[in-house]
Amino acid sequence: MTPTLVRQHSTHAGTTPHVDLRARARDWSEIQERMLVPLYEAVHERLDVGGDTRVLGLGCGSGLALLMAASRGAAVTGVDSRSPELLALARRRLLPGTPGEPGAAQAPQSPATAGPHARGGIPRIVEGPPEDAADPTSPPYTLVTAFEPTGCRTGDAEELGALLARATPLAARGAAVVLTGWGPPERCATTSVLRVAARLSDPLRGPGSWRPALRDDLEEVAQRAGLRPDGSGRVACPFGYADTGSAVRGLLSTGLFDAAVAATGGEQVDKELREALHPHQRPDGTVWMPNVFRYLVARVP
Question: Which parts of this chain are annotated as the region Disordered (predicted)?
Answer without folding.
Answer: 95-142
